[in-house]
Amino acid sequence: MAKVEWQALESNPDAINPFMEKIGVTSVKCVDIISFDDDVLEHLPKPQFAMLLCLPDYKKVDALMAPIYEKLRSECVTPPANVFFMEQKIGNACGTFALFHALANIEDLVDLGSGSFHKWLEAAKGLGIDQRSDLLANGNFFFDIYNIVCIIMSEYGS
Q1: Keywords on this record (predicted)?
Q2: Where are the domains of the chain?
Q3: What does the pLDDT look like over 67-108, one tens digit per residue?
Q4: What pLDDT score was predicted for residue 61?
């Protein structure tokens, strides 16, 4: 089976926020953090629940993380029950996976709505870490929505 590839989700609130709305998450918004200086951070909207770090060289990240993941697998280490995690098996989906991890891990703090993200998350919770990505790749939760966001992203372009 060929590896599933998605259009990359741009690391831009102008793309991420419409995407979240389309998947039914309207209670939170993404903003850019332009600096970690105290005077800049104090002006960020509150409360803050998560941070998405966008790393420009995924190959370096993959090389760095591969031995860590392999060690965790060989030792049969799993995340704590209160931490949602899934293995990324979809190409170009780093931003989407980061967003989904962030949203899934704040579900007790915010209303994630009743849209496609909520439906997928409820189904994914019953699966193993390695199966959750398959549910994204093979399920019909987001396909049409993701195509819409590709159009949104092309309008805002980077």
Answers
A1: Hydrolase, Protease, Thiol protease, Ubl conjugation pathway
A2: 13-76+84-156
A3: 988 898 899 888 898 999 998 888 888 888 999 999 999 999
A4: 82
| pLDDT at residue 143, rounded to an integer | 63
Minimal CA–CA distance to 104: which of 87, 82, 126? 82
Question: Are 86 and 132 in contact, with CB atoms under 8 Å apart?
Answer: yes
State the CATH class of domain 13-76+84-156. alpha beta
C-alpha distances (whole Å) from 149 to each of 22, 78, 84, 117, 142 are 8, 32, 24, 14, 10
CA atoms within 13 A on the CB side of 6: 25
Residues 56, 98: Cα–Cα separation, whole Å: 14
User: Structure pTM?
Assistant: 0.85
H-run or E-run covering 68: helix 58-74
